[in-house]
Amino acid sequence: MLKANTDIIRLDGAEKRFGAVRALSGVDFHVRAGECVGLVGHNGAGKSTLMHMVAGTLMPDSGRIAVRGGIEDHYSVPRALELGIRCVFQELSLCPNLSVAENTRINHASLSGFGWRRQAADLITAKLDEIFPGHSISAADIAGDLSIGRRQMVEVARAFTVTQDPLDLVILDEPTSSLDAHTAGQLLAFVRRFVASGKSCILISHLLGEVLGNADRIVVMRDGKVVASDAAKAFDRDRLVTAMGGAEARQKAAAETASRPSAGPLRVRARPARQEDGKELVAHAGEIIGLAGLAGHGQTDLLLAIFAAASRARAGIEVTAPVALVAGDRQSDGIFPQWSIAENIGIRSLARLRSGLLISPRREAELASFWREKIGIRTPDMNNNILSLSGGNQQKALFARALGSDAGIVLMDDPMRGVDIGTKLEVYDLVREEARNGRTFLWYTTETEELDNCDHIYVFKNGRIVANLRRDELTEEKIIQSSFGDAA
Ligand SMILES: Nc1ncnc2c1ncn2[C@@H]1O[C@H](COP(=O)(O)OP(=O)(O)OP(=O)(O)O)[C@@H](O)[C@H]1O
């Protein structure tokens, strides 16, 4: 084991440009043995770019990388792995057509010969059991069939499995973004145990409470620079938000929601396919309805069924206005990777953007630049490819697509994953404003704080609605109680 205070990795003066964007300007960064470093910053601040350098997937244009004191002139992914440095990136990397065991084998070339499948299965199952007791994932499951939350669990567990290469530092880029509160708690408890054993972690998260509660030291990035680095206990939420340059934390959601006028005509009535009692989800014009409960318990399925019912009648679902969906899994359901940012935003508004038979580039550009301003999409040019945006900024583009459309009903499938705190607060305001104008929102979220914006919350368990809570009845405890118990 390395002595505490030894730097596992150190970057000095790291610079990186992507065309006109200066993603990193002169960043110094280090991680010591036995420490969990929290890394925070607004969308596009440069966190992922910096982590790509630590993991060896990107080389700095200039600057120096040293691992355990030794300068690395030819740093790369294989070299990082050899040195015990691994990364779980935001965009999940499991091969969807392979099983969980086969995906594990990809990272462990030493699992070969007769019986490798059994060894890989045992390796990943043991790690899943250790990190997420009671997980119910089988090593034979095909990755593409798993919910996004379960895929994230496999991805994280895989990063901690050990065969030949050592394991000293794991970078976790928003590791809890698709996990419910219970599973996220299991992971963070594991991270603390891992660090206590002398290993190191870098934890990137937009959930500031998660960073404040679990990191030993916090590094704040802003516009490609490190602007603060201090012991976690020296920070509180306000100091972090100020350092990030985000909006002031506000508590006005609850008061505003309470004072909203009573709702309008029926917009959605939907009964989950597996519901056997008479419970159903009901939403009126102008309402914000929350869907809560442990991840993967039928919330996304019901949203997708409502989305489908808007174009083709389905038993048990009534929809009375056009519907837009903000997908939570932007990689598989959301973005069109070949298209520009402007095209990705405009696709849901084609009727309005048309001039004769063709799409008017001027109207498309106007729509795009309106939303760029409104929710601060950080890019030098909206005609750039959507993949040039940071993860959180891609998510903002998906929001713009739904809110810029004519849909009276907006379905949101845990859409704030990866969005920074400043933008989140602005989007909450926007959602409440749009609801006051008569739009209906059905909002599945794994962040309990977001439910403060809702009028009613339906808690899901095993594909069914088990509770319908008014916002004033809502507590984290009550949701967890409904999620685990039989109580309604
Ligand atoms: N491959 C790329 N091509 C062009 N620009 C890029 C590329 N990767 C990153 N950028 C730009 O570099 C800047 C930093 O992005 P980065 O992904 O590091 O931010 P981040 O802090 O991780 O953001 P988020 O919280 O949204 O994930 C952004 O302006 C982004 O648009």
Explain this structure to me?
The protein has 488 residues and is an alpha/beta fold. The chain has two domains: 7-244, P-loop containing nucleotide triphosphate hydrolases (Rossmann fold, 3-Layer(aba) Sandwich), CATH 3.40.50; 252-484, Rossmann fold (3-Layer(aba) Sandwich), CATH 3.40.50.300. Helix content is 34%, strand content 23%. The protein has helices at 47-55, 77-82, 100-106, 116-131, 148-159, 181-196, 208-214, 237-244, 252-258, 299-309, 330-334, 341-346, 350-353, 361-375, 391-403, 421-436, 476-484, and strands spanning 7-18, 21-32, 36-41, 62-67, 70-71, 85-88, 169-173, 200-204, 217-222, 225-231, 266-270, 281-284, 288-292, 317-319, 323-326, 354-355, 358-359, 409-413, 440-444, 456-461, 464-470. The longest helix is centred in the first third of the chain and has 16 residues, at 116-131. The relative contact order is 0.12. Residues 247-255 have low confidence and may be disordered. Adenosine-5'-triphosphate binds at residues 18, 21, 23, 41, 43-49, 378-379, 388-393, 418, 420. Residues 9-248, 249-487 form the ABC transporter domain. One of its GO terms (molecular function) is ATP binding. Pfam families: ABC_tran. Keywords: ATP-binding, Nucleotide-binding, Repeat, Sugar transport, Transport.
